[in-house]
Design a protein that fits this description.
This protein has helices at about 10-15, 220-230, 265-270, 335-340, 640-645; strands spanning about 65-70, 75-90, 100-105, 115-125, 130-135, 185, 240-245, 250-255, 270-280, 285, 315-325, 330, 365, 370, 375, 380-385, 395-400, 410-415, 415-425, 425-430, 435-440, 450-455, 480-485, 500, 515-525, 535-540, 545, 565-570, 575-580, 585-595, 610, 610-615, 620-625, 630-635, 650-655. It has about 650 residues and is mostly beta strands. It binds copper (II) ion.
Amino acid sequence: MDHPFRLTRRQALMGIGVGGGLFLVGTSRGAALPTVLPAFAEPSLAASGVPQFVRPLVIPPAMPRAARLNTKGGKSTDIYRISMRQFTQEVLPPPLPMTTVWGYGSEAHAGTHNFPSFTIEAKYGTPVRVTWVNGLVDASGAPLPHLLPVDPTLHWANPAGPVDSRPDFLSTPSAYTGPVPIVTHVHGAHTTDDSDGYPEAWYLPNTTLPAGVHATGTWYQKFAGQFAARTGVRWTPGTATFEYPNDQRATTLWYHDHALGLTRLNVYAGPAGFYVLRGGPDDEVLDSRNGKAAALPGPAPALGDPPGVAYFEIPIAIQDRSFDEDGSLFYPDSREFFDAFTGPYIPGSDISPIWNPEFFGNTLAVNGRTWPYLDVETKRYRFRLLNGCQSRFVILELTSDAGAAPPMWQIGADGGFLPQPQPVSRILMGPAERADVIVDFGAVPAGATVRMLNLGPDEPFGGGAPGVDFVAADPSTTGRVMEFRVGPSLGRDPSTPPDRLVLPAITPLGTVARTRPLALVEEDSEALEDVGPRSAVLGPIVDGTPQPRMWAAPVTENPGIGDVEEWELHNTTMDAHPMHVHQVQFEVVSRRPMGGGPSRPPEPTETGFKDTVIAYPGEVTTVRARFDIPGRFVWHCHIVEHEDNEMMRPFDVGPVTPPA
Ligand SMILES: [Cu+2]
């Protein structure tokens, strides 16, 4: 090899390392300055200007319920009424300014709106019914515009009409500033299509709308009717009521917006939270020393907790963000930010003017605060980790200033417990993936400082190891996640040692009815030479040839009800993509080179169930899932910039659903 590091696509795109490059910029935004002032906006707050480890981690409390409804046969349903609102909160440490964000919160409970949102605590076998309210209005009730630049040239919700379309333009448009559509998806939930947060089932706030603006997306009425017919509950304007049966394995789910062509912006603005499902046969963990119930580190925040409870089970959402000096969230307002391409844009070419193919924030926020710290005792903690970043893959590692790093075991992933606890020193997570880990601070001397580092790249991930195959994130900024300040132990640790945990068995999915070869394809401009990507797309592979299909094309994936299928994800692009399939928790079967060659088994941390899998470039990643709920769902890349621009496809389980 000539170079110690692989030349990344971004570097290649930007002419770095190939000589005679047009643009003299660094390998990641914020790491170096262009020689001339760019015409487009850069985040005006440098990451180096944000003090680190000066404010405590926020541990999201449990989301208050609106009611508990008792139904026939002694059963109950947990009722929530949760709105998305705009507000300001401390994201950057003082004296830096507060940040205007969006977040979910309980309508009837003041002070519960937060970024990230409070945790929905769900119980196996007890359905959760949430009325999701679009509360994006100002104090006078007028609809709020988006906090971030909305590119109107994507195939997107487009409330000004025609809805759920890729509109035509006579000249390059500026950002859309009208009312904002939302629709919430519980990521990893096993629920019906009316409650899944279909991207075209969005709705605007219930208020006076500008003339000609449509209040709901294409599928809203159909799903409203279906939900009313099944439950007797009618959706009121500006809301949608969804129900989650909680009939799946106990695990860490999360909820976030999923509106068509807007997900990257709606999620970046803040609305996302954990949804923790507990109980049931797949939540029973034993102690191998005595065969009795094991004790996992706890408690987690619960409803009605008084202030000052010490938590030993803590959700940790890692999200990259950039800011301007006034504290506001920064998100690119021009394609130029990505690759210095100055146009022509749509309609002068097929390149969107605002959308960026990927986005990497120059800070890491953990539970809504940049680089926080957490005081811990010399005990074991259970952390439910979520990579909530836009495009960034993270590789997490602990380091201590007092000798060995505390040991970590991963006990669960997207779909619940792994078959066995896995000792881990690094945890790789693509966007939307979760890892349930136990960290044992027991042998760390009190007074020590432990840091969680990120060794993933500040650019698209292609697999491999930091320092070998790619440059790790900036060690002074995005290479750091948070700090643990180890204090003395207040009492003994009642939790079972991780190597003594007997985790619930995995029941294999059974006979495969069908294998579907599917392709991940990146598309460059068809109008301009050497400009790309224009978008990334998905599609079936027919006779060995990928057939890229746009969002609007007829359904090509149509499993029978109850069928187990293997989906082979052929990644023809240069980057890894975190691929997510709605409705199901799947098994990761294998990975093999696309050109043929031996397959390798899933990673030890992929041996439980998953709903999001890393599909590496040049490989076929095979997953196996049972599709047991009829209706219309989606599968997509969870790099939210990709998902918003064609890297998402509808699928139907059972009879093909007629268009709404
Ligand atoms: Cu992708």
